[in-house]
Structure formats: structure tokens, C-alpha cells
Amino acid sequence: MNVTFSINQFRWSDTARIVTFLNKLSCAETTETELSERLFRQWHEMPGENPELDCFIAETARGEVLGFLHMITEKPIRRSIAIQSVAQCTDHSAIAKQFALTARKFAGDQPTDVLHIQINKEDHEWRVALEDTGWTSVKEYWNLRWKSENRHLLEKVSIPEGFGIRKLELDTDIKIFTEIQNESFSEHWGFCPNTVEEITARILMERSGEEGILLVHEGTRIAGYNWTLYASNGSAAIGWVGMTGVHPDYRGKKLGKAIVLTGMHELFERGANRIELEVDSENVPARELYYKLGFEKVSETLWFESPLQ
């Protein structure tokens, strides 16, 4: 079969056409989930990121974008991650294979021992491309959704006695908040400890902000948190439960349910039409909590792994 595309290094001057491609691929154009160039830049200007070295484009000779690959290197846990977006086209399978090879080559030059990539469970061509080249499926994640028409069924918040909930204050809470997040997820698969600089950059991104981060506390001690995101195009809005963490010392006290419910109520007060989140299919306590709150599974993704020699 003739090769009708090439894999090229991303340049900042490609930003507009990559953002257009990603919005078309996700059917997000003119919707509340439409990706802005500003948010794209914020993601790729994170501490340690250099998109002109770690991002790649699959494109035709005429400059039509067919795929985008973003490589992330997590040095503290010696892991590389390949984030891929490939159009449904005649070259889909070939691009998947080339991206898999590109990811391996890139990761092989980094101080990492393992490479991971996430794909839609229904994407048969990606699965074949990975399985045929020695990748192994290691994790399954579920995407869940809660619709606003069920809002009347949403439970009222009941905060366990002795605890309170307040919003994050960036200037005074950022250090302890970073510590709580790292401690809450220290045993979670694939979690890489974050620095204060990384967390601060994420909080200041479009869709995020101090107003979307709730802290559950016992006196002056922070016990857990719920980090939500929000986006609106004026006529529709969406919320995401980005992360929910409870410090190991405070688990089993129903704090997770209280703080997630508080975050959901606040998202709906801001105008969200629906709320979405992603959960590890093997995290039974979290999965069951979300189901009990009324979330429904809408899709599944698979994480594949490739050891690096």
C-alpha cells in the first residue's frame, strides 16, 4: 500500500490547525467542549513540556492533519505516556502503527522504563496495531456521565460531624494541597507525584480555577479534596470531576461522597448541563460511589503497556 502521509515534528505555528483537527475529531466545534488555542497552549507550556520536541503530526503532502501525538515523560516514576488522536480515515491503521513506533523511539531516548498509551476500547485498528507489535493491555478505564435532567434525584450533601468544606485559597493552600494530592494517590496505578509548580499551572488553566477545588477539613487539617472543571459556550455548559482524593488517614469516613456531592451541586449551580468523569474499572469503591450517585457508563478506554529495553 502506498504511504499517503508523513510523520512530522510539531511547531508552535501549527497550533491553529491542530486545534481545529482535535475539535473536528471530537465533534466539539461550536459546543461547550470546544478546545481553545489558549487551553492548548497552556497544556503544552506546562513545566517540563516542550511540544516542538515531544509532539508529532501525521499529515498529507497537502498539509491535511490526520493525527496528533503528544509524548509526556514522567521522570519521578520513569514512565512515558503517548497521547494520541487519529482521524477515522483510510490510513487510520497505518498511522496508528507509525505513532506506536514513534512513541517507542521517543520514549527509548528518555530516562524511563515503561511506555503507556490509552485508546478507545472500540478502536479495533489501534488494538491490532499495538497487539501485533508486542504491547499488552494492562488497564481499563470507564467514562461516566450524569445528566442535569436527573438533578432532582441528586442527594443533598451530608457532611460527617466534625468536618467542614471550603474552597481552595491558592496563595495559602497550594503547598498542603499538593501534598494531600500526592499522598491520596500514592498507591494509585500510573500516578506521578506533582510539584507545586505543576499543580499551580493546572489550577490557572482555562476551565479550572480556585473556585472549582473544594477542600474537606477537620479543623485546620485538610483531609481530602474534589477538583472540578467547567466549560461553557453561552448556551450549554459541562462540568468534569477531575480528581477526588482523600488522605489515607481519613478513609472510611464517607468524606469522598460528601465532597463529590458538594462539587456536583456547585457545578449545576454554575449551569452545567451534564457532568463527566473517568474512573479506573478496578477501583471498586470509587466506581460504586459514582454509580450510587447516579452516574452511568458511556464508554470505555484501554491502557496498553510496552516495556522499554
Structure description:
The structure is a single chain. By secondary structure, this protein is α+β, with helices and mostly antiparallel strands. The mean pLDDT is 95. It has a twelve-stranded mixed beta sheet, with helices on both faces. Helix 4 packs across helix 5 (124-131). The protein has helices at 15-25, 37-44, 51-54, 92-108, 124-131, 170-184, 196-203, 255-270, 284-292, and strands at 6-9, 55-59, 65-74, 79-86, 114-120, 136-147, 164-167, 213-218, 221-232, 237-246, 274-280, 296-307. It has two domains: 6-134, Aminopeptidase (3-Layer(aba) Sandwich), CATH 3.40.630.30; 145-298, Gcn5-related N-acetyltransferase (GNAT) (Aminopeptidase). It has nine helices and twelve strands. It is 31% helix and 31% strand.
Task: Give the helix/strand layout.
Layout: E1 6-9, H1 15-25, H2 37-44, H3 51-54, E2 55-59, E3 65-74, E4 79-86, H4 92-108, E5 114-120, H5 124-131, E6 136-147, E7 164-167, H6 170-184, H7 196-203, E8 213-218, E9 221-232, E10 237-246, H8 255-270, E11 274-280, H9 284-292, E12 296-307
